[in-house]
Amino acid sequence: GERDEEGAAVERGPGAAYHVFVLMEDLLDKLKLLSYEEEALRRHNMRPLSRHYFALPTNPGEQFFMFCTLAAWLITKAGRPFEQPQEYDDPNAVISHVLSELRSF
């Protein structure tokens, strides 16, 4: 279960299970405002995200690659050069590189 900063169990309300869906919808709205479909997806010939794409684990490999593609695009959009990860790159190396770039902001 979830714990607070002191390690005590956190009580979650009945709507807590749906919070991840709300977060995903907010993420999708923000990506649309940034024109992610035209700028990120078309370049890589990818389909637009569904409202629940990252909220439900369906295909972890595909979801991870989509996350990395979006992270690389967002970092580049923020003005930093960032090489687009390839589908078969080492996941640990890709995440390490993304986190390193984000820390440098």
Question: What do these coordinates show?
Answer:
With 105 residues, the chain is an all-alpha fold. 50% of the residues lie in helices and 0% in strands. Helix 3 (60-77) packs parallel to helix 4. The model has no long low-confidence stretch (mean pLDDT 89). It is found in: Cell projection, Cilium. One of its GO terms (cellular component) is cilium.
Computed over alpha carbons, the radius of gyration is 16 Å
- Measured distance between first and last alpha carbons: 32 Å
Shape: globular
The number of helices is 4
Low-confidence stretches: none
- Helix amount: 40-55%
The average pLDDT score comes to: 89
Keywords: Cell projection, Cilium
Family: Belongs to the IFT57 family.
Main location: other
InterPro entries: Intra-flagellar_transport_57
Concise account of the structure shown:
This protein has about 100 residues and is an all-alpha fold. Helix content is about 50%, strand content about 0%.
